[in-house]
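User: Structure tokens for this complex, please. No commentary.
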Amino acid sequence: MGKKIFETEFKVRDYECDIQGIVNNANYMHYTEITRHEFLESIGISFLKCHLAGIDPVVARADLRYKTSLTCGDSFLSSLTVEQKGPKIIFHQTIRRKSDGAVCCIATVEVATLVNGKLSRGEYFEEKLWDWL
Amino acid sequence: MGKKIFETEFKVRDYECDIQGIVNNANYMHYTEITRHEFLESIGISFLKCHLAGIDPVVARADLRYKTSLTCGDSFLSSLTVEQKGPKIIFHQTIRRKSDGAVCCIATVEVATLVNGKLSRGEYFEEKLWDWL
Amino acid sequence: MGKKIFETEFKVRDYECDIQGIVNNANYMHYTEITRHEFLESIGISFLKCHLAGIDPVVARADLRYKTSLTCGDSFLSSLTVEQKGPKIIFHQTIRRKSDGAVCCIATVEVATLVNGKLSRGEYFEEKLWDWL
Amino acid sequence: MGKKIFETEFKVRDYECDIQGIVNNANYMHYTEITRHEFLESIGISFLKCHLAGIDPVVARADLRYKTSLTCGDSFLSSLTVEQKGPKIIFHQTIRRKSDGAVCCIATVEVATLVNGKLSRGEYFEEKLWDWL
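Assistant:
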């Protein structure tokens, strides 16, 4: 488990860069979020439909290590592998600059699932995740 | 070291809440950033002036654990303690909901300092940090 | 109508400044939004409670004229007057730099009210607005 | 002038939707900005390089009319035409939902050009704009 890789590509938006001329740290949180949502969509899970059905994946922990800064004009590859650990889904995510493959950010994101506001055993995503893995 | 506490108060802005009705995770990164910058300002360090002088503190690692979600209308207390560890400054940060003191987010943020784009030994902030501690 | 002024104060957050070293234009939209919501709250209207009750004020038009740029460290005064025009509420908003009163942004924002997703005649806010005016 | 159309496609990011379940108004400002920057890039003008050379296009006025709301999962087409009016460049921008062509936002954005912080006659972009038009 955790070997199969989902990867997608994005481009830095100029407004995401701050006064230091580099992408502001909080935006990497956004990048990892949209990558997870694109991944979920690719295996048939819609964040919006889940929410409307009372099923809300929420981030319990996010650990981001920043290596190389992205800046205006950069494209980047955002990849993830998935691991299920008890009731949590662990996403191992990497963001690499497209031009040279430099690692920009390595993130470990733990996601718990709320059902009608209460912590679940994670069974709602299990089947589709196993199909993918 | 690390015992003295800096604390400030903020209020959730409605646009910071996402479709789940809670503050989006990336905004806690913003909250911890503005708290650090308010702290630095309180001890006489301006983020902007530093940048213009070629001194840029950058986040090397941010580890955020999410406990209780903030939502529209919530006020919260954001506090930090500081620890110097070799060339890095480690900020231990906590965000608590004001109404009941519930812990919302616990973050450990490691900051390195670039001088003209190169990693420094952290000496630029040392003196003022020691004065405060 | 439209003479009474609501005013509140904010401070620029460093992450709101972009690579040009000034507050990114989109953030003025945020500033005007939080000012309207603070105003509504001051007269007893909660954006969240309205939403949960199926009443959603939505911006139909926003016209922003940018005069002086705000930057890191700036505090600013954000004021508004209100005018009701048929089913719409018109907010006349001004953002001024606190240090010297320089006008930064003048905005006219037209708000319509949806009730269960359908355009209403604006009667839900009328009474409280009239009480204030 | 103003007849030639530049168009690009984006997809709503879930974090751009707020508690009302629709894209927050400020994000349309971001959408129009990235469209202008993509356009400038397509005719050989880099926002970052301009900034580093002391040339900063800044928005003097933005007038946005909101028609249909975008939500999670929506893709949209963002188009613009250009008009030069004295020292200003006027962008006429339209955002349409991809699935059915519904007009979501119509924006008129006036851009002035600062050279070393002073308002210019707009000559820096003129030639490339004329080549494109």
